[in-house]
UniProtKB/TrEMBL annotation, chain A:
Taxonomic classification: Bacteria, Pseudomonadati, Bacteroidota, Cytophagia, Cytophagales
Stated name of the protein: TonB-dependent receptor
GO molecular function, one term: siderophore uptake transmembrane transporter activity
Keyword Membrane among record annotations: yes
GO BP term (any one): siderophore transmembrane transport
Record-stated family: Belongs to the TonB-dependent receptor family.
Keywords carried by this UniProt record: Cell outer membrane, Membrane, Receptor, Signal, TonB box, Transmembrane, Transmembrane beta strand, Transport
Keyword Membrane attached: yes
Domain TonB-dependent receptor plug: 123-223
GO cellular component, as recorded: cell outer membrane
From TrEMBL, chain B:
Record key words, sorted: Signal
Domain of life (superkingdom): Bacteria
Name of the featured protein: Type 1 periplasmic binding fold superfamily protein
Region of interest: Disordered: 157-182
Signal peptide extent: 1-23
């Protein structure tokens, strides 16, 4: 039997003293529950080994065996899908024996895969949203869905494009694992949002802090895990349909999932999922933003097979989006920018429209994945994941080419095609002495980028190989963890310089390590401490950029001599959880040496479009320190107050100054009233919340055209409930109002803060119809 | 079982190698890109055929090498000139004439000539597009007293938003020539 999991088995036994009985009047009774969910298991068999007597559990998971003679018995509880569980009893009277069953090996293993993925390293803070909390974010893009986490903000380009920021770090410093595969897109651009449909996920998690050992290079700021539900092996057909409508942008989102097993083929499961999204111009409190519509079509298909220790999964997904870029943001010179800033609102006025005109971007992302794993009888486990991703990004400028014959072709002004092949082999060795568990892995990545159009970043080939080894030791409430990794990367770039092809080779290699401890003082109180390192090789845009960045009115120049960034991250947290009060306090100190950023140059650069501020990619040593605090307290029955606070300070050590583009501190408060459970109404709630975002005052002097925007405070209200339509059908309804008072505000991390206000009031209605098991 | 594993592995290996391609083979010189590398102002003194040209040239476009030429405009006082402008993309061979393309799409383009101090020169547009808005490919420049200042030359690109004012759109050209009336 593979007992990889540690001390999961907690059997609660309680003896009830009863009057001494004679003869055969002894009995055993109890409840059978799922160990993970705590839900009663209906229809499990409880039998006495060696005798022909047994009973089934009832709808509450209860069982009772009567008329037993005093003596020693072995009781066995079993049901398909769970590991059978045996317990020896010495009966003298009545006895209560509760069983907590563990999902069977095959299922257990799958749970455990995700546990490994989300858990590693376990001494790092991990936050997860799933279930009804995730449902509340439905219809939003990935970064928006993650904003509920403390310490997570977003970097925006208007309201349709946003990317997640963890502890002040974003883009290539955050790794996104989409269904177990590292998402590889053109992440370097601030207006390049992750190409992931959040409807794929039933669980979104954030690992805060450097996690370079388990996930490889780039995981300097943290890791975002987008995970779908386990495939429904041997289950009947089920599905759900989501419909979300937003008043702002008159946006509609429709998403459906259908899944099941295959009759007559044991061990199979499949799922098909699709999402459609359509939205028009966004409205700020004062005006519409021209050309801010979005249109998205995504789908995914998954199938899998499980048999004993073997598991095979295949997955295909396609993400297709067309996003309008606010036309007022496309500027040709600093004068244009200063004019807009002085005007206080965009020059381009428009009404509502679903049309997406130039400038716009059309992006598609395709992911193909095959994963196979095998559990050996002795407890070892092997997993191989292979994936191919194709990221196709097309950017259309506001201006068509002046030459009519070229304009008629309607080619994008910029095209990037990035193909990535990844291989991950992981070996989980069998636990040594039941206390030491670990894994070894090899990851390879082969990537090539083809670009066409206005020269921005060169074509390149990239190859990466990494080896890692991690061990975890568990004893007496302590959990210790250590790991090491080595990565080797080559990058070859191909550019046209003076009409000649120039190629350049780069080699990077690095070690990363992690060391962590978790101490569980009691069931309620625990502490964690982790030291982790990670590194990131400079990306091609940092090495080779050379031109005006449209919209930013800045001339950016790369530096081919840049060295990799190296991060040393210390992160500590304390967690207390009781049924009515939970709190988590975390502190972090992230030191990034050779941190790459754009440094303003003293002299502007002269171009035909005028003089531009000149920025060069350069390196410094930066420190990121901050505090995340979250607490939730049920002050009176049904009423819960929760609070989240993020505080971050970033400093450029070499230049003795602050750094630009760091999210400001914020506090988020909610009060939620949950209605008592009712036969028809489930999980009915009403909540009101406020988000206060402070002004970012820690910016280098004269680093920007415009001082960081003022602090703002936004109110929101939400309500929702679940209705059981029938035994197998559920309807979930939610209504929410964001920016209740239609406040005009601008966020420092919105690239459009120069041109326009952020989104005004937005009312959304969410319906989810779920059927089947 | 083992057969199934090996089958999957084989498939996976096949997948991983059939797609390998070298990005280096695909580098192309892009000729569709439209740059403006040179801007030439041609002043023709009224009543004569005396034309003087003043240019800005940056043959490799933004970045790379610095501009090779940025002339000082020298004009005579109290004269009327016909001012024509020429835009070229000399990064290509043969050089492409952007002026013609601007003329073809004159309803999306507007040249703006701004002297500082404003008394140095008066500019009057000499052409109009199909919507009866001025263009500025040709016009008249009248100088008055002797003086030194700047002449800012802008090409505003205003697709679907041209309204006769400089505000909409963005700069395709924005150059500040030194202007001497002497």
């Amino acid at each position: 039997m593979n007992r990889i999991v540690f001390s999961f088995l907690i059997v609660i036994t309680s003896f009830t003293a009863r009057a001494q009985t004679t003869d055969c009047a002894c009995f055993v009774k109890g409840v059978v529950k799922d160990q993970h969910t705590g839900q009663p298991i209906v229809g499990a068999t409880v039998l006495i080994v060696g005798q022909n007597s047994g009973v089934f559990t009832d709808e509450n998971g209860r069982y009772e065996l009567r008329n037993l003679c005093p003596g020693a018995y072995t009781l066995e509880c079993r049901i398909i899908g769970y590991n059978p569980f045996r317990e020896k009893l010495d009966l003298t009277a009545g006895h209560e024996e509760n069983f907590n069953l563990l999902e069977q090996e095959v299922h257990l293993k799958d749970v455990e895969i995700t546990a490994h993925r989300t858990d590693a390293p376990s001494s790092q803070p991990l936050s997860t949203i799933s279930g009804s909390d995730l449902e509340k974010t439905r219809g939003q893009n990935l970064a928006e869905s993650l904003k509920g986490f403390t310490g997570v903000t977003s970097l925006q380009t208007g309201s349709s494009i946003s990317k997640p920021v963890i502890h002040g770090l974003h883009s290539n410093r955050i790794l996104i694992m989409n269904n177990g595969v590292r998402q590889e897109g053109q992440q370097w651009g601030s207006e390049h949002a992750p190409e992931i449909d959040p409807f794929i996920a039933t669980r979104l998690s954030v690992v805060k802090g450097a996690a370079g050992v388990r996930y490889g290079s780039d995981a300097i700021g943290g890791v975002i895990l987008v995970e779908p539900e386990e495939l429904p092996f041997d289950k009947s057909l089920s599905g759900e349909l989501n419909a979300v409508g937003f008043t702002n942008g008159r946006q509609g989102v429709l998403s459906g999932t259908l899944q099941g097993g295959i009759k007559g083929f044991k061990g199979f499961g499949w799922r098909a999922q699709g999402t459609m999204k359509r939205g028009g111009n966004i409205r700020t409190p004062g005006y519409f933003l021209d050309n801010t519509g979005i249109s998205e079509k995504n789908f995914s298909l998954a199938a899998g097979y499980r048999n004993k220790g073997l598991g095979i999964d295949v997955f295909y997904s396609r993400f297709d989006t067309k996003i309008g870029i606010f036309s007022g943001s496309h500027i040709g010179s600093v004068t244009d920018l200063l004019n807009v800033i002085e005007n206080g609102e965009p020059f381009v006025k428009s009404g509502f429209s679903y049309d997406i005109a130039r400038p716009n971007q059309n992006v598609s992302h395709e992911l193909m994945k095959a994963e196979t794993h095998y559990h050996f009888q002795n407890g070892n486990r092997f997993q191989w994941t292979i994936a191919r991703q194709l990221n196709d990004r097309n950017e259309f400028d506001l201006h068509r080419p002046r030459n009519d014959s070229i304009a008629a072709l309607n080619h994008p002004e910029l095209t990037f095609k990035l193909t990535t092949l990844t291989n991950d082999v992981i070996w989980d060795h069998k636990p040594i002495a039941g206390k030491l568990a670990g894994q070894l892995g090899i990851s390879t990545l082969y990537q090539y980028n083809l670009m066409d159009g206005r020269p921005l970043i060169p074509n390149f080939n990239q190859f990466n190989i990494g080896f890692f080894w991690m061990e975890r030791y568990v004893k007496n409430g302590w959990e210790l963890e250590a790991g090491v990794r080595y990565d080797y990367r080559t990058l070859t770039s191909f550019r046209i310089v003076n009409r000649e092809k120039v190629s350049q080779d780069f080699k990077f290699s690095n070690f990363s390590g992690t060391l962590g401890a978790t101490r569980n003082f009691s069931e309620r109180f625990s502490a964690r401490l982790n030291f982790g390192t990670a590194w990131r090789a400079p990306n091609v845009s940092e090495l080779f950029s050379d031109g005006v960045h449209h919209g930013a009115a800045a001339f950016e120049k790369g530096d081919a001599t840049l060295q990799p960034e190296k991060a040393l991250n210390t992160i500590a947290s304390l967690k207390y959880a009781s049924p009515r009060f939970t709190a988590e306090l975390g502190g972090y100190y992230n030191m990034i040496s050779d941190f790459i950023y754009l440094k303003p140059q003293p002299e502007p650069i002269l171009t035909v479009r005028g003089a531009f501020p000149y920025f060069k990619y350069t390196q410094t040593d930066a420190t990121f320190k901050g505090i995340d605090l979250s607490a939730s307290w049920e002050i009176v029955k049904y009423t819960t107050v929760s609070s989240k606070l993020s505080y971050l300070r970033v400093y450029d050590q070499r230049n003795d100054n602050y750094l630009v583009m760091i999210p400001s501190n914020r506090i988020d408060n909610q009060i939620k009233y949950e209605l008592p459970e009712d036969a028809k109404w489930h999980k009915a709630y009403f909540s009101i919340g406020n988000l206060f975002v402070a002004q970012q005052k820690r910016v280098p002097p004269a680093s920007d055209f415009l001082a960081p925007p003022k602090a703002y405070s936004l109110w929101n209200v939400q309500a929702g409930s679940t209705f059981n339509l029938s035994e197998k059908q559920q309807l979930e309804v939610g209504i929410a109002v964001q920016n209740l008072f239609n406040v005009a505000y601008r966020d420092y991390l919105n690239r459009f803060r120069y041109y326009a206000d952020d989104m005004g009031r937005n009312i959304s209605l969410r319906l989810k119809w779920k059927f089947g098991a | 079982m083992t057969r199934r594993i090996s089958w999957t592995l084989l498939l996976a290996v096949a997948m991983s190698f059939t797609q390998c391609k070298d990005a280096g083979d695909d580098v192309q010189i892009d000729d569709e890109n439209e740059l403006i590398t040179s801007v030439t102002l041609k002043f023709t003194e009224e009543g004569t055929t005396n034309t003087t040209s003043f240019s800005y040239k940056d043959a490799d476009g933004d970045g790379g090498n610095a501009p090779t030429r940025f002339d000082t405009i020298a004009l005579k006082p109290n004269k009327t000139y016909t001012l024509a402008i020429e835009l070229l993309d000399e990064s290509k061979t043969p050089a492409s004439n952007i002026t013609e393309e601007v003329a073809e799409e004159s309803d999306e383009h507007l040249f703006v000539y701004t002297p500082t101090p404003s008394t140095l020169l008066t500019y009057t547009y000499g052409d109009k597009d199909i919507n009866n808005y001025v263009i500025g490919l040709t016009g008249k420049a009248v100088t008055t007293a002797v003086g030194t200042g700047k002449l800012r030359v802008q090409l505003r690109h205003q697709p679907e938003s041209k309204n006769g004012t400089p505000s909409p759109g963005s700069d395709d050209v924005s150059l500040e020539f030194t202007l001497k009336v002497q």
